[in-house]
Each structure stands twice: as C-alpha cells, then as structure tokens.
C-alpha cells in the first residue's frame, strides 16, 4: 500500500523540481554562453602567452572577424602581430583599439610601443604625451626612457630608466637598455655596472653578457668576468672581447682572444675563424 503513495510523491516531487528549479531552454543557453565566455577568456590568455605567434595571429583574426564588436579580440590580434614581428600590420589595429570608447591608457601605451618598433618616434611621443601623468606604469616609463634616449636627453632618460626599474620585479631588460644607453654615451664603467646588474637579475640574458664585454673591452679590460656562461657563450664572449681589443689597437691581445674563442667553442666557430683570417691577412699585408 505504501508503494503507490511513494510513486505519487516522487512524481509530484519531479514536477515540483521542474516547475521551481529546472532550467528553461533560454536559461540553458545563457549558462552555456557564460561557460564559453570564461573558456574564451582563458583561451585568449593561452594564445597570447604560450601559443606560437603566427598561430595566435590566425586565432585572433578568426575571432575578430566572427565578433568584430569584441575589443579583446582586436587587442589580442594587435598584440599577436607584434609578437610575430609583424609590427607594421599591428599599428593600425592598435590605433583602432586606442580610439575605441572602451580603450584604456594601457592600450595607448601599447600603441606607442608599436610605433617605436616601426621607428615612428615622433608619433610615439605624441601618444604618450596625451596619456595623463597619473598613469604611472612600468611600460609607460620604459617607453619614455627609450624616447628620451633617442632624443639624447640623457638626464630625462636616466630619470625614466630609474623609475621603470623600480616599477617591475623583472628589471633585467630595462637595466640592459639603460646600460646600452650609457655605453653609447661613453660612460663605460656605469654601463658595466648596469649590465652586471641585468645579468644578476637574469643569468640567461646573453645580450647583457655580450654588452658587458663591450663595456669592459672599451676600458681595456679583456678578462672574462665571473658570470654564469655556457661553453658556447664563453667562446662568443671571447670573440667579442677580441674584436674590442683589436678596435682599441691592442692587436696581439685581440688575436690571442680570437684564438681562445676558436679553441673554446665545442664546434667550429665560423665567425671567430673569419675574424682571425681577416686579421692575419691584414697583418701579412
């Protein structure tokens, strides 16, 4: 006798659930759209950070074509084009993004970055000048420093570099740029210090290591510093030091460094061999 009552209760409960808690078709669609939006945002991040740049360009091109009203797809396309070194194509898209009503100051900084990459320093400065001074970010000051460098406004460049270094937890790139600025000015000891600081921040930054050799070589210091380096890097740094020595007129020291570079490299070091051959030919003549 209890089974029919139980069955009725279950049926009533089922109807109650469908009436009170069951999602309608429209609600299901909205729920799926929400999930897709979250997944899409996550995929955007993956494509921007981890994907092959050209693959990311194709992804954002398709997405921007399908949903042209979504600013994040335009922004992602511009960013991916820069990563793929297709900066000329990125500039007009960054301009479109920066002019959008929902754009922020970070978008305008990115436009200035793209303009600098194409060599349009004047327009980049104009874009940065239009950004309120209260927008104090690492990227903004990094670009301000580069523009001041280009204009040979050394005091302003040093000020901006110093501010940028204080606004990031990964200052190796800025320290390297600052050091190169000092190198071009002939401030070799200051450049050496900044390159050394960059290497301490990022032991894998070969550009800073090579620049460090240029700074030391310009001072007549041809000893390899105690820094992390692979055997291949050691050979390449000896090569740089050798060329620096020759440039300063210390030909015999330079020749010895080139020979050390050839012996140190685990394979045939074509660049060092060519430099040595050219030096020997000049000496014979």
From TrEMBL:
InterPro entries: TPR-like_helical_dom_sf. PROSITE patterns: PROKAR_LIPOPROTEIN. It holds the Pfam family TPR_16. The keyword Signal applies. SUPFAM superfamilies: TPR-like (SSF48452). Keywords: Signal. It comes from the Bacteria. Residues 1-19 form the signal peptide. This is Tetratrico peptide repeat group 5 domain-containing protein. It comes from Roseivivax isoporae LMG 25204.
């Amino acid at each position: 006798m209890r089974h029919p009552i139980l069955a009725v209760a279950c049926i009533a409960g089922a109807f109650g659930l469908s009436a009170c808690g069951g999602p309608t078709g429209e609600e299901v669609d909205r729920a799926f759209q929400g999930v897709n939006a979250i997944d899409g945002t996550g995929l955007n991040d993956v494509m921007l950070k981890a994907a092959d740049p050209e693959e990311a360009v194709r992804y954002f091109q398709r997405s921007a074509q399908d949903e042209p009203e979504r600013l994040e797809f335009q922004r992602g396309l511009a960013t991916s084009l820069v990563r793929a070194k297709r900066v000329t194509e990125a500039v007009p898209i960054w301009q479109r993004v920066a002019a959008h009503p929902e754009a922020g100051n970070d978008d305008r900084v990115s436009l200035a970055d793209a303009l600098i990459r194409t060599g349009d320093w004047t327009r980049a400065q104009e874009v940065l000048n239009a950004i309120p001074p209260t927008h104090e970010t690492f990227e903004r000051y990094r670009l301000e420093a580069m523009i001041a460098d280009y204009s040979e406004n050394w005091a302003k460049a040093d000020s901006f570099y110093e501010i940028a270094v204080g606004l990031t937890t990964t200052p190796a790139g800025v320290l390297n740029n600052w050091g190169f600025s000092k190198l071009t000015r002939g401030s070799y000891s200051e450049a050496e210090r900044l390159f050394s600081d960059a290497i301490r921040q990022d032991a894998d930054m070969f550009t800073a290591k090579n620049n460090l050799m240029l700074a030391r070589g310009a001072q007549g210091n041809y000893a390899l510093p105690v820094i992390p380096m692979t055997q291949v890097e050691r050979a390449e740094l000896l090569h740089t030091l050798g060329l620096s020595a020759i440039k300063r007129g210390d030909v015999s020291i330079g020749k010895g460094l080139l020979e050390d570079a050839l012996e140190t490299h685990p394979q045939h070091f074509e660049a060092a061999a060519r430099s040595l051959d050219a030096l020997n030919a000049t000496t014979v003549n």
